[in-house]
Amino acid sequence: MSPAEQFAQSLIGQQGSRWRLPTPALVVDLDRLEANVARQAARAKAAGLALRPHAKTHKSAFVAKAQIAAGAVGACCAKPGEAEALAAAGVTGLLITSPIASADVAERCAALTRLDPGLMAVIDNPVGARVLQAACEAEGAEIGVLIDVDVGMGRTGVANVEAAVALAAEVAGSPRLHLVGVQGYGGSWQHIEGADKRLAAVQAGMARLSAVVEALRAGGHACALITGGGTGTVTADAATGVLNELQCGSYVFMDNQYADALGADDDGAFQTSLFVQSRVISANAPAWVTIDAGLKAFATDGPPPRPLTAPFVGLAYFYFGDEHGGLPRPTGGPVVLGDRVELMVPHCDPTVDRYSAYHLVRGDTLVGIEPIQAARQSR
What we know:
The chain is built from 11 helices and 17 strands. It has helices spanning 3-10, 30-47, 61-69, 80-88, 103-112, 126-139, 161-172, 195-218, 234-240, 256-262, 348-352; strands at residues 25-29, 50-51, 75-77, 94-96, 120-123, 143-148, 177-184, 225-228, 245-246, 274-282, 288-291, 306-307, 318-319, 325-328, 340-344, 357-362, 365-371. The longest helix is centred in the middle third of the chain and has 24 residues, at 195-218.
């Protein structure tokens, strides 16, 4: 444990310790996180939909277990590295949502069934079925598979009904594989502004997914699980009635991108619970001050981070280098070196990936530190 980590641990439980963290620090408001988890669980239950939240957002066994305790059936992982890290920490009911396409990845999936016998994997090509079958034979394992369907993004997934039926036949001829259902995810729909526009996009994509489901069932193939969706489309997914499981994940934190796109829509009615805490390290320039959170502290594919701590609220953050950020000098009083400022993050998933731990707070007190087990799992 580093000196900074030791110091942070020593602060747990002390009044005002939220504002004494080694910076930059990734901070989670536990009250808000718990409220977000409970709200999405209740929404899914009311709609009659299972919830398997995507762990690529938080990459943390602590958050995944909180979601499962609230009713989630498991967790989604983008890739085997995330699944391995979470399974090692005791999370089960995992679904790897990126298509399996090579023998080495298939072997890792087969081995992972030792920790999570219910592990499921996604394929969109006969090669995926073949390498999974071979890996399971070698491991003595069985895996449930889902056929990934391109619902309009062109990123992954079978392109048409014929390809889906052919792939289902490949799975049927693989004794160690069991076809569980299909996956259809429209990532580009999640940040469409306006509930009506998101609904239209979902309806078009789900028509493609429905056609595949109907063809598979007509051919005698099992298709019990129809999974997909995200934070921005929960209302539309429920209204469309095609999915029976939701993969939404970012609702736990609610970053800038989602807050801007969803606005006052019901899909956006979650509290911001994730922050990066920084502090002023230089105030010599007449027009701005420098803080210790720059390009390395945030994902940069969204709008700039937004300061949420007085007197910096509403001021326009700018990147000032790898380690530094800038804020206009606030009016109405001096800036003191060491002043703390927490910022709303631009895009939660890749921002989280830059850190090794969450600092959990209630009010102004640090109440715990939790590792981010699946951070930087790039394979």
